[in-house]
Amino acid sequence: MDTDRVIFVCKGNICRSALAHSVYQTQFEAKVVSCGLDTTPSQPANPRIQKIAKTLGYDMSEHRTTRIDQLDIKANDLLVCMEPRHVQAVKYIAPNANIVLLGLMLESPIVYIHDPFTSIDPYANRVSKKIVEATLILGKALKNRQ
After folding, report:
1. Which residues pair with 35 in a beta bridge?
2. What's the sign of the alpha-carbon dihedral 102, 104, 106, 108?
């Protein structure tokens, strides 16, 4: 499958998918967006995650939330989810979508990238680093397929 666009998906589009979007947009010349399954449009990224992203070399200051129903999902889009329940929600919205869990990209795969929104700082840092690592691996894999 050729991928025309990568769409990162999480619940609120203020932490996980927003960070993955920023990483992908910075590192790869490809179409990328992010969205939330349950979010208010046009909100900025979580300030704590923005701060963590900055220490990792990524600027999220321009990010604004998008709801998944604001997107026109196409056949060659790749939807990258953070949790198995996100996959189920996306399948309901777009039954024929190409979907993958971001955590499966890691060297030690995980199926669930927990939401750092209400977590303690050390955990938010750890999750953010995993998101960056998995996003870079995904991007390189997609680039090598072209």
Report:
1. 9
2. positive
In this predicted structure, what is the pLDDT of residue 1? 63
Residue whose entry in the numeric block shows the structure tokens 């967006």: 33
- How remote is the C-alpha of 35 from its chain's centroid? 8
- Please give the structure tokens belonging to residue 52: 């963590």
Q: Exposed, middle or buried, 133 (CB in 10 Å: 0-12/13-18/19+)?
A: middle
Model confidence band, residue 110 (pLDDT cutoffs 50, 70, 90): very high
CATH architecture of the domain 5-139 equals: 3-Layer(aba) Sandwich (3.40)
CA distances for 90 relative to 26, 107, 133, angstroms: 25, 25, 23
pLDDT value, residue 65: 98
Lookup result for tokens 């777009």: 94
Q: Cβ neighbours of residue 146 under 8 Å, at least 6 residues apart?
A: 2
The rounded distance, in Å, linking the Cα atoms of 10 and 20 is 10
Report pLDDT digits (tens) over 38-47: 999 999 999 9
Return the domain boundaries, the chain: 5-139
> Do the Cβ atoms of 34 and 70 come closer than 8 Å?
no
